[in-house]
Amino acid sequence: MRCVVGIDLGSTTTKAVLLDEHGVLVGRGITNSRSNYEVACAIAQKEAWMAARFTILERMLEDHQDPSLRDLGEGLKGGFRLQLYLVQHAELANEIDSLLNAPHAAPYRNVLAGPAKEILDEGEHAASALFHGAAERKSDFFRDLAGASFMAGAERLTKSHNVPFERLVGLFDRAILNVESRPMDYDFGTLLRKAAGHLPTIVGGTNEALNTVVEQIVGTPIEEIAFVGTGYGRQTLPFPKEAVRSEILCHGRGAHRVFSNTRTVLDIGGQDTKAIQVDEHGVVTSFQMNDRCAAGCGRYLGYIADELNLGLHELGPLALRATKMTKVNSTCTVFAGAELRERLAMGQKREDILAGLHRAIMLRAMSLLARSGGVDNEFTFTGGVCKNPMATKILEDLVREHYGDQIHLNIHPDSIYMGALGGALFALDDVKAGKPGILPAFAARSRSTPMRAMV
Amino acid sequence: MNLQQTEPSITRKDDSQEKQKRMIAGHFDRLACAQETGQKVVYTFVPGNLTELIGALGMLPVLPEINALQSGMRGKSAGYIAEAEKAGHSEDVCTYVKCDIGMLKSGNIGPTGTRLPPPDLLLLSYTGCFTFLKWFELLREEYKCPVVMLHVPYQPDGHITDEMRTYVVNQLRTEVIPTMERIAGRTLDEDVLKQWLDRSRLAEDDLVAVWESARHRPSPIDGYFGGVYYIGPIFSAFRGTDAAVDYYRSLRLEIEERIARGEGPMTPDGPATRERYRLVIEGPPNWTSFHDFWRMFSREGATVVASTYTRVGGLYDTGFRHDSARPLESLAEYCLGCYTNLGLPSRIALLERYIRDYQADGFIINSVKSCNSFSAGQLLILRELERRTGVPGGFIESDLVDPRYFGKANIENRLQSYLQMLDANLQRRSA
């Protein structure tokens, strides 16, 4: 399979999208950027590359002569992700073990070791439920899933066993940073075969047929024929200048590809917010973005989540439970914590404050939209923040209030990939124009880099 | 401490640039000796400056905003601004003002390392900027020296009426010149003033030829980053001097030679090798990261063919010249006609003219945080220009001399996005 690659290095997450030569999306990947763009880039790309292999699987199974195999695609994919999760989970356990055995941990070792092991064992046993059939996961990141599991266990054990909560969760916080910043050593084929081995025996069929399919997936070559990099950290990519595009153009192009009637795009990423106007071809005609202050961007929500000891993905749902909206004056990221603590000290409810914070962010976005030329029909919301249900709800309300109810708002569940998709589309243009940004050294290295993927 | 990493400039300096450097050093040397030589010193501002009057009366001008921008370029403004803020000036105050006040409180060492003399007179000859008034109020408190103010009416309709001209001339006659004469200790010799004005006119003719050279492809000049060097002598202490006449003549010849050789402008990385985009720029440059800012353009092959900032000290390319036949009238028209004294419709019309005359592919507005009065309405300018010309505009934000407001990654991101947007639009139109 010959593919083009678009990579979007956001300040929070790095995304990769693979398109085949016909422009069909065949794979995508996402990982935490963690300020290490090169590693993040390799991971996201490999993740997309892995997803592309599952696309190959789907295409093979669609037409497979053995009908009993056709339903196995999702099971195999879920099984593979479970295996990947378990590899990462084992690394997390090892890391926590190392931290506990460090000399400075001696005073707490006996107190923490037992509960930590208990929590990790529980997390390992509960993992299969996260990847079973149509299981709904609150996040795609190992950090979030393992973190939620660890946090729940820590809360429970703190109450029942008199374990110091802060020290216990502090173990996880330190360990996850180390786990995430190290390359993970695993082999795609090995994990896929393991996943296939755990699938139930096919009724009326043979596992031999399944094994043949697995080997075909593993053995199918994927050739990356062009790259385009974009996003906040794009300058750090080892790409030639021609293969680096502005994320503004990429988000506009990606959004237009998914929703072809798009004329206005709002992208709220970790570090910046962009209001973009595109024409009927998806070409950007005007844009505005925030200046160097990251007030009201995704990073602001990140600080708020940290302050509340919540996962980023938990903010929106919590804010949706608000019974009234606290008026928040500042979206200054630096003062995010102070603003929050002040409100809490005044006795206001967390969810009400969060609702107000979300509104303050979206009001800033509305100002940028106005400066870029307003909101035209159709309006597409992209970037990491569009996964936040409270943010999207408020945006919808504000757009209706300011631009009437004729504006159709598009929010795709995979909007976070729009920048990478736009990049891949530009890469495809380059191929068609006979000047692809081919990166043999980088491509070869990233393919061989052991990866830390999302699960 | 300046945390911004700046690449060293490898620019080969043109002869004119070397000449200018010597001129400026000489001027600051004269200022350093002013108290010994007995020459009187006048602090004044660039827009609407009355350099010919100052010169004809044998006095020396000091331009605080030029000192501030020089401090910005030399990495000293952050410290000076901090000094001023320590003295109680708010974060929202114009950073030129704070830089100047901070420099004063740090010993008043000028850009060439010599001490600036205190003013004998503060000459406020342009009142379109309210900050200028407050600035000189502060300096008056610091130096306890006299102030003379020339009230310059705003040009709301884009033209100078007889009443406006007469109003300014009357002030010159009855207030400004008598005060200057008292400080200088001599009477203004009108013939000497006329000689100064004649020399101004010669330099102005040559400067206009330099601006208009940007009509060539490739443009032999960068009319913004290079342009701020070209305006150095004429916007500061040298208009009306033989040195300025000589400088602008040699600059013009230098540019003509460059045209003959088919060369583009000089950049911080050496001579430009390609002209990929021709741009018009509105708004002043950032001074604290001036060369980084310039490189963002030059490394993309973007040449600025015209800019409004380089016209703040005189709109000569719309026809104005100092005129010895009408000395006070032409000085009045100069003060009334400076770019910052124009309303939005006139500014839009001028930018539109530049975009069309210089066949610009695009235009960019650099909106500075320090200057609310000048930055107000710039988004309106952008939309209106897009509507009139069909040329897409770009918008970036920085500051004059406060390095805290220069976000390199953010500005570069916006600029590259804008230039790629120009490419995409061009490709779509040609498809």
Could you tell me the radius of gyration of chain A in angstroms? Answer: 23 Å
How much is the average pLDDT of chain A? 84
The largest interface is: A-B, 22 and 23 residues
Strand-pairing-aware structural class of chain B? alpha/beta
H-E order of chain B: HHEHEHHHEHEHHHHHEEEHEHHEHHEH
Number of strands of chain B: 10
As residue ranges, the low-confidence spans of chain A are 443-455
Percent range for β-strand residues of chain A = 5-15%
Shape of chain A: globular
Strand order of the largest sheet of chain A: 7-6-5-8-9
Oligomer state equals: heterodimer
Contiguous uncertain segments of 5+ residues of chain B:
1-5
Distance between the termini of chain A: 24 Å
Q: Structural class of chain A, please?
A: alpha/beta
The CATH first-level class of the domain at 260-411 in chain A comes to Alpha Beta
Number of helices of chain A: 15
Order of helices and strands of chain A: EEEHHHHHHHEHEEEHHHHEHEHH
CATH homologous group name of the domain at 260-411 in chain A: ATPase, nucleotide binding domain
Would you mind describing this structure in some detail?
The complex is a heterodimer of chains A (455) and B (431). Chain A has 455 residues and is of the alpha/beta class. Among the domains of chain A are: 76-180, no CATH class; 260-411, ATPase, nucleotide binding domain (Nucleotidyltransferase, domain 5). Helix content of chain A is 53%, strand content 12%. Chain A has 15 helices and nine strands. Chain A has helices at 37-62, 72-101, 106-130, 142-161, 165-180, 188-197, 207-219, 247-258, 298-307, 312-320, 336-345, 350-372, 389-403, 418-432, 440-448; strands spanning 2-9, 13-20, 25-32, 223-230, 264-268, 273-278, 284-289, 379-382, 409-410. Chain A has a five-stranded mixed β-sheet. In chain A, strand 2 and strand 3 form a beta hairpin. In chain A, helix 1 packs across helix 7 (207-219) and helix 12 crosses helix 13 (389-403). The two termini of chain A are 24 Å apart. In chain B, helix 5 crosses helix 6 (95-105). Chain B has 18 helices and ten strands. Chain B is globular, with a radius of gyration of 21 Å. In chain B, strand 5 and strand 6 (270-271) form a beta hairpin. Chain B is an alpha/beta fold and 431 residues long. Chain B has one domain (15-430). Chain B has a four-stranded parallel β-sheet, with helices on both faces. Chain B has a four-stranded parallel β-sheet with strand order 8-7-9-10, with helices on both faces. In chain B, strands 5-6 form a two-stranded antiparallel ribbon.
